[in-house]
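Tutorial sheet, problem 5. The two components below are modelled jointly, 782 residues in total.
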Amino acid sequence: MDFDLSEDQRLLQDSLQKLLKDKYGFEQRKGYMKSETGWSRDLWAAYAELGLLGMPFAEADGGLGYGAVETMIVMEQFGRALALEPFVSTVVMGGGFLRHGASAEQRAAMVPEIAAGKRLLAFAHTEPQSRFDLHDVATTAKKDGAGWILDGRKGVVLHGDTADDLVVTARISGQRRDREGIGVFLVPATAQGVSRRGFRTSDGQRAADITFDNVKVGPEAELKGGLALAERVVDETIAALAAEAVGCMEAAKDLTVDYLKTRKQFGRPIGSFQALQHRAAEMMVCLEQARSMAMLAAMMASEPDAAERRRQMRAVKIEVGRNARFVGQQTIQMHGGIAMTMEYAGGHYLKRLTVIENMFGDMDHHLAALSEEGGVFLAA
Amino acid sequence: MELRFTEEERAFRQEVREWIDANLPAETRERMASGRTPTKAMQVDWQKRLYAKGWAVPHWPVEWGGQPWSAIKRFILSEEIQSTPAPSPLGFNCNMLGPVLIAFGTEEQKKFFLPKLASLDLWFCQGFSEPGAGSDLASLKTRAVREGDHYIVNGQKTWTTLAQHADWIFLLVRTDPNAAKQQEGISFLVVDMKTPGITVRPIITIDGAHEVNEVFFDDVKVPVANLVGTENRGWDCAKFLLSNERTGQARVGASKERIRRLKLIAKEAPGGGRPIIEDPRFRSRLTDVEVQLKALEMTTLRVLADENRQLSQRKPNPASSVLKIRGTELQQAISELYVMAAGPYGLVAPHDPEADGRNEPDVAEDWQTLAQATYFNWRKQSIYGGSTEIQKNIMAKAFLGL
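Model answer (structure tokens):
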């Protein structure tokens, strides 16, 4: 067991940190948010140049063959910067579907373009009634000769407004909430019958509401793996988001501690008050516990036993969520009014952390499920 | 970064598990599994077995009976001991005084004491706290005045755990009441409990147990040879001792064992027409504690991996402060879950004919009568060894610069 970064990993961390330090100040970020895409094309190109966009793909497919630890390193930096770009949608989720579910031809066609920053993906799974259940799928896929016809509506598709291709869950057979009979389809966003309405999410990122009306796709559109594939990719995504949350929490803690040292009331820095010191210490406890869980997530992301992986990711989701909520809320409370404003970074960390907390199941969702599954430590 | 145990580490865990199974007396295992602390005889017997195997003090230097192991390997041993459950080597001897003597003791002190500490031939207790010196330890008042080859010690220590079993005590005493800073006039002594003038008086805690004591010193003559380190520099030893027990306080292995046992109990214990494990409220509380314990386990491993590094490359690790705070919170939370599981039969106090002076019927199972007693007793955990509030003071100062 070894928690140190390798030389290459440190290099990756340093180069991204440097780029974001130069290009992702809070004011610069506001500019990216106002642009047409809602994020920065220039930075996307810079990530491509650093190799980030091809990171998880096999070298044979045109990638770097990196694993979950590298994803963790990158996501932590994105979290610190509150980066807006569709890295999770395209590289973590889209990339996951391609790696685990696509054919060699599909990968050959798409991976080099993704790595070059020329192709964007998004994962369309949420439906108006589905809440956090990946298997609650009303969207249908009907056989049409050798191919398929998709019909249905997907909501809150993260970065779905700018994606070139959509990964869509659709029901091939069975009832709406059956775990069996779900297919995963790779659909060009420009296909006939796809209509998208983009909107802003509460943390300032972008998403889309997408309808599929008699959308015809070929037989190759169905990826291998069905629901198990989607769950595997979601688990890898939970690991990435845990690391992003850690980055957010660390930046929020640093910002808060700095403020405690400079803000004066009653004639002295407010950080001299023990009530605030203890809460700042508690923020640090929360940060370290979340960091431990992000590491656990990176370790479990490649666990082949799906049930074991699922249980551990639920634990990650619960513990990161709990700690993120405390750090986010206290960032605002200890700043006071200033962190309530759009003009100050503090509140934006809570916004992003809240979005992360509510992606792929909130704490109660996973706590109920994990209890049902026997808890974290199963009897030997 | 490699976040999994190696093949060798897994094999070692198996070896430890098998050895404990073959060597732990059934009586000891049974007593500990029921949630009680081992008797003195059990503790001594078990530690002698560990000592014979070379496993009592693996973290000490090899020349003093340690093992050339990684921190992770040491963790595996202690986790297996805790999760069996078997008695851990006596902390006062092995984690507190031993390392202090290795760092500050004379050759004679090391030769005389270290083997006896490791084998538990001598049982030490800790004389730090006083009625007026708790969190503010450096304000201690017990005096030691030098007279020829002896110190004459007068004063009182309190909260002295298991002093009733102890052969010796290590003490912080004030040798220079006029020092500029109160930390500067303190010395570290080791004292034979049989020395005339020492009186031990039990303190019964709210769970009814006799675990801690008051120890009085009335003109106690202590040879100057029993001074550890330099006179008036005892605070260095104390700080070293307190900073040494970082990972031990999380007690993740023990908590995992308590949870494993609680899950078995909860399959049988009534929970309103069904076993309480099927009560969604109980179950989700239990799971929530498990989740936090998993995070603490990972944090412990991070701190351990850090301890593997050369001293010079080691940075103060904020994760280590997390261990005491969250570790004790979780042990306390687990004790609350036992109370919940016991329900009305948790009201039955542990039966102790000697203390009660009456012979009353055993109406409840051991775990039921121990549930509330343990809950009461474990409130101590967030107080001793630097209270949660003191830990947060340290974090605010050392890591946040506040």
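Marking note: The mean pLDDT of chain A is 97. Full credit if you identified this.
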